[in-house]
Amino acid sequence: MFPTTASPEHRSPAHQKAFRIGLITASAGLLVGLDTGLISEALGFIGNDFHASIRDQEWIVSVLMIGASIGSLGAGTFSARFGRRLVLMMAMVLMFIGAGLCTDAFHLSQILVGRLLIGVAIGICTFTAPLYISETMSGHLRGSMVSTFSMLQSAGILAGYLLGSILSSGGHWRWMVSMPMLPAALLFTGCLFLPPSPSWLIARGQDDRVREVLRSLRDTPAEVEQEFNSLKQEAAKGHVSGLRLLRQQPNFRRSVLLGICLQIMQQLTGINVVMYYMPKILQNAQFGISGAAWATVLIGVINTVVGIAAIFLVNRWGRRPLLCTSAAIMALSLTIAAIITGLHLPGMSATLCLLCALLVFVGGFGLGAGPLVWTLCSEIQPLEGRDFGVGCSTLANWWADWGVSNTFLSLVSVIGFGQTFAGFAFMNVVFIVFTLMFVPETKDVSLETIETNLLAGKKLRDIGR
User: Fold this and answer.
1) In a domain? residue 227
2) CB distance 407 to 223 below 8 Å
3) What pLDDT is attached to residue 6?
4) Transmembrane residues, as ranges (predicted)?
5) Of the ranges 346-350, 423-427, 430-434, 439-443, which one carries the lowest mean pLDDT score?
6) Other residues' Cβ atoms within 10 Å of the Cβ of residue 208
7) pTM of the model
8) Considering the domain boundaries, does residue 216 fall inside one?
9) Other Cβ atoms within 10 Å of 367 Cβ, number
10) DSSP codes of every residue in 92-128
């Protein structure tokens, strides 16, 4: 299912181990997506049981983003001090506790606290997992494995939709919100088998351990020595805090700003409006409750299938072509959705066209904007400020996500679905222009080369050349 550079019988033991490590780490994406799918299906039942208003329901969804922003903000400091593996394990503990609180909730406030903890865990995962993959995988696996993280996030959304649809017939929302507990426990166990990141080890002066880890993950001694020497050269520059580097190094400010803008643009595509509120959107279009639930599962299927395709395409087409294609597909499909909902077109044909437009939209996102933004945000930051830079961009993602998800239902109640979808369609056009002007092509380019070009002052779109 996953792309490789050689047939299975010719893969080296080091390649196989790197693949397994990348897959375990990328599995954190499954948990991130699972919550999205489950809360989408559970939200209506929770609202009914606790007599929650529209604003209450917006907060049930969006409080997770506040937690995620807290998690991503602290993840950089904690992962730099304690290591990526330990921080991922801590996230699994928080996920388990948060899901338990939601399952046993007797008041809306307990659900909010539980989802806040789940949000902290998700914020840690979305920061730490792509960062660990980018630091541990070699160039030919790096893009594919970060895309695998995104694909498994899509698979988690599908699993959440599917489980939610099955349980929705009996209104079993407590079963829905308990589902993340088992995979959190399994991933906690899987993290015990992950090696420390070579970049983290080199920063702590553990040279022998760095070579040991690299020898287990690289195919040849030459690759080991080349990467070890590159890491040593970066470490020899001395440690500077992220904030100090931000003040002192204008080129670092450029990469941080690019990462922040990429994550904000990802959220302004409108993807999480569709993923969180799909059942409500479809019910407004005259789908029944059961029909909306199963149509939502179809959204999850498309998201997952396209996520798998993106793994193969990311190292063939490159980052920039996929991002532009992705945004163009989303802009067109949301324009169609805006016309159908804005004109209140009647009949089953219009309803099915709306569903098809939303399916195409989700597919467009999974093709490029979903996986590649996370990949780029890990690639464009220099080693010395990588934790800080990735942390800033991840924080921006969650705050943008909060802003969109916390206002969507209220916005629709004022201006309607048509104008809301039209606004998101316009933002996808802006995304295309932004990509062409500023986003570099980093396919098959080493992190060291990207850093050298960035710090030399090259234009952002040229730092991958």
Assistant:
1) no
2) no
3) 43
4) 21-39, 59-79, 86-106, 112-133, 145-167, 173-194, 256-279, 291-314, 321-343, 349-374, 421-439
5) 346-350
6) 9
7) 0.74
8) no
9) 24
10) HHHHHHHHHHHHT-SSHHHHHHHHHHHHHHHHHHHHH
For the residues 72-84, what does the mean pLDDT come to? Answer: 83
d(CA 71, CA 94): 10
Sequence length of the chain is 465
Residue 196 has which token pair? 């420390």
Q: What is the pLDDT of residues 183-219, one digit of tens each?
A: 999 999 999 988 888 888 887 777 788 888 888 888 7
Mean pLDDT across the stretch 78-105? Answer: 92
Contact between residue 244 and residue 447 where contact means Cβ atoms under 8 Å apart: no
CB atoms within 10 A of CB 30: 23
> Rg of the chain's alpha carbons, rounded to an integer?
22
Q: What residues make up the domain containing 255?
A: 12-194+237-462
What tokens were used for 434?
């932004």
Ranked by mean pLDDT, the top range of 179-193, 240-254, 383-397 is 179-193
Q: What is the dihedral sign for C-alpha 44, 49, 51, 55?
A: negative
Query: Tokens for 362?
Result: 């989700």
Domains contained in the chain, number: 1
Q: What is the CATH number of the domain that holds 172?
A: 1.20.1250.20
Q: Could you list the beta-strand ranges (E) of 298-386.
A: none
- Residue 9, amino acid: E
**What's the CA angle centered on 144, arms 205 and 189, to 5 degrees?**
60
Backbone region of residue 241 per phi and psi (left: phi > 0; alpha: psi in -120 to 50; beta: other values):
beta
Q: What is the overall mean pLDDT for the chain?
A: 85
User: Which letter does DSSP use for residue 77 in this model?
Assistant: H
Q: Give a yes or no: residue 180 inside a domain.
A: yes
Q: Is the pLDDT of residue 9 over 60?
A: no
Of 316, 409, 428, 315, the C-alpha closest to 361 is: 428
Q: Which residues contact 289 (CB under 8 A, 6 or more apart)?
A: 44, 168, 279, 283
- Is residue 345 situated within a structural domain? yes
Q: What is the pLDDT of residues 103-122, one digit of tens each?
A: 999 999 999 999 999 999 99
pLDDT greater than 80 at residue 397 = yes
